[in-house]
Amino acid sequence: LLSHFSSIGFWGLVNNAGISTFGETGWLPMETYEKFADVNLLGSIRTTLAFLPLLRKYKGRIVFMSSIIAYFTLGNGIYSMTKAAIEKFCDALRLEMKKFGVQVCIIQPGNYAPSTKIQPPVSAEQIWSELSEEEKAVYNKEYVEERANFFNSILSEGSTNGYEVVDAMVDALTSPAPKARYMVAKLKEKALVFVCALFPTVVMDSVLSYALSK
Which of 33, 48, 88, 97 is most open to solvent, judged by the fewest CB atoms within 10 Å of its CB? Predict the structure, then answer.
């Protein structure tokens, strides 16, 4: 790509940095929320602002790594929160950059945990040991184990075809007419997004509650 675009200056920026973790809202300390916002959201914004003058000058591309988890969450609300925020940042940026000829694209992968290793299997023992006394008084160890096992089963079902996401990134950078959003996910995952986007919230809540109960 560098040799291909070297004649037209700084062409593309891909914001791919991201971290993930598991835990219900009260299980995680404020420091964890701050760390995730700093890496997943503010990290991408800092990089974008730093390169924006060059991208405007050369009418380049900006690609952000989001996730279908921006639409719903199953135990990793902190990650979902940052992805939903980056989606809104991109929506504003995409409209603002049109007048400069800069195109903004969002990649929305489904579950590619085995490919990226972004989220290793979680340990119920570790989660329980790190809970505050207040949270331990509300939840029991068996509940934590159930949630951890559920989350680990989801991780294990992820795709190993990481090249599919890379292909979407390359298309976003090189296509004459890139998409605003590239959803790279299984049909089941796309169906969840469809339900979340078009049905009343109570319907999606029912679907996710049923999944969690299983």
Answer: 88
